Amino acid sequence: MRDRADFERYVEQRSARLLRTAYLLCRDWATAEDLTQTALARAWLAWRRVGANPDPYVYRILTNTHASWWRRRWRGEVATGELPDQPQELDETAGLGTRDALRAALAALPAKQRAVVVLRYFEDLPDEAIAGIVGCSVATVRSQASRALAKLRLDPAARAAAETGS
Predict the structure, then answer these.
(1) Closest Cα to residue 43, out of 64, 57, 27, 29?
(2) At what angle do helices 4-26 and 55-72 cross, to 10 degrees?
């Protein structure tokens, strides 16, 4: 039986990694923080039933919650009160172009392919674990990863980012 101390230890050890995964799924830090907190709250409710390795269970909660939020979210324009006064200098954002290109390329992928890419290449999970988290077969994980990589190879911004090596 798992107790509160186990959960607290898990949160201390894994919350930064869960937050990073959530960010890669939703591409917004505030939403990623909410997503991580929601996933951990749901994991807490089932903590006594979670096995010795809670990662697959928590990652599945994270990806399922993201998918349900994504389906309900309105994707229209977001109004701003003011436009920025000055553009940012390029010197301060030297490495951001490559990261933005990668984020945009990931954002263009369908949700399941993005989840597979994030879990495989950023979280370094094996295909079997990803299949359990996403809720599909191992063969589907492999085909989704292959299709995602093919799309990323065709994306000019992702190709340029890969060529710069950043």
Answers:
(1) 57
(2) 40
Phi, psi of 164 (to 5 degrees): -75, -20
- Residue 75: CB atoms within 10 A of its CB come to 6
Note whether 57 and 50 are within 8 A (CB).
yes
User: Dihedral of CA 9/13/19/24: which sign?
Assistant: negative
Q: Would the CA dihedral through 16, 18, 19, 20 be positive or negative?
A: positive
Using a cut of 0.70, tell me whether the model's pTM lies above it: no
Q: Which two tokens stand for residue 79?
A: 């109004």
Q: Of 124, 117, 119, 123, give the one whose Cα is nearest residue 102.
A: 117
Rounded Cα gap, residues 145 and 149, in angstroms: 6
Q: What is the pLDDT of residues 117-149, one digit of tens each?
A: 999 988 999 999 999 999 999 999 999 999 999
